[in-house]
Write a sequence for this structure.
């Protein structure tokens, strides 16, 4: 076995609810990003960058890396000027795999 896509993301968090580390394995990181998107961001709302940063800081100090992964992975979309973010729709992915970004 090379991966465990069905493993829950709960084991990535410490007892205080903060992320222990950002996973290096793409499948684990994708599962984490999907979880963070679902729990931190509403679908019908636009967020300022500072709001995205504040939300991500509640789980990990490296909010900029998480924000970048969320945008690159297609979980959050950013306006061209970088002023606003919004949650992306992920068709065909409820509980399923998210396509990898090369």
């Amino acid at each position: 076995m090379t991966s465990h896509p069905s493993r829950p993301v709960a084991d990535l968090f410490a007892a205080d609810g903060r992320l222990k580390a950002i996973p290096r394995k793409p499948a684990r990181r994708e599962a984490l990003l999907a979880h963070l998107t679902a729990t931190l961001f509403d679908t019908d709302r636009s967020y300022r960058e500072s709001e995205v940063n504040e939300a991500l800081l509640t789980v990990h100090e490296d909010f900029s890396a998480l924000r970048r992964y969320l945008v690159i992975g297609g979980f959050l979309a950013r306006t061209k000027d970088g002023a606003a973010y919004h949650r992306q729709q992920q068709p065909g992915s409820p509980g399923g795999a998210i396509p990898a970004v090369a």
